Amino acid sequence: MKARTMRRILNAWPPFLFTGIRVVALDDYRYAKVRLKLTWYNRNYVRTHFGGSLFAMTDPFWMIMTLKSLGNEYIVWDQAGEIRFVAPGREDVYAEFRIEESVLDELRAATANGEKCLRWFDTDIRTASGELVATVRKQLYVRRKKPKP
């Protein structure tokens, strides 16, 4: 599936559509930019971004981008995730994801013998002016599929 098609699907996906999350860019599965709009329906009690929405805006990207970049010979799953809130989000926020070829080479080397690899990916969530709102860490499980006999 082309990245452009995936972007459209993600933007229509109810967990994103109904929480104000929009995939602004998804370029060749190597770069993505996501926006979370602050609206009345995704604010918390103190009128800042709901933490679950902040985490959700980052949820599928490292897994999808890694899987699509490595190819169908690999199994890629989310293994763990954590979020650290730094400042209250009182305006629209953005997250950017970029997967470098060196990271893909590292994963290929680590899984060449069929071993699993657990790797952490970090994402900052920032306002348009660059203020850090939260940091999210996602751990991926990556393994090369066993060859079919």
Describe the overall structure.
The protein has helices at 3-12, 14-17, 51-56, 61-70, 101-110; strands at 21-27, 31-36, 74-85, 93-98, 116-127, 132-144. Strands 1-2-4-5-6-3 form a six-stranded antiparallel sheet. The mean pLDDT is 94. It has 149 residues and is α+β, with helices and mostly antiparallel strands. The longest helix is centred in the N-terminal third of the chain and has 10 residues, at 3-12. Strand 5 and strand 6 (132-144) form a beta hairpin. The protein has one domain: Hotdog Thioesterase (Thiol Ester Dehydrase, Chain A), CATH 3.10.129. The chain is built from five helices and six strands.
CATH architecture heading: Roll
Individual helix count: 5
Compute the gyration radius: what is it? 16 Å
- Let me know the average pLDDT: 94
Unreliable sequence segments: none
Helix content: 25-40%
Q: Give the terminus-to-terminus CA distance.
A: 27 Å
* CATH topology category name: Thiol Ester Dehydrase, Chain A
The helix/strand series, from N terminus to C terminus, equals: HHEEHHEEHEE
Give the class from helix and strand content and strand pairing: alpha+beta
Can you tell me the CATH superfamily? Answer: Hotdog Thioesterase
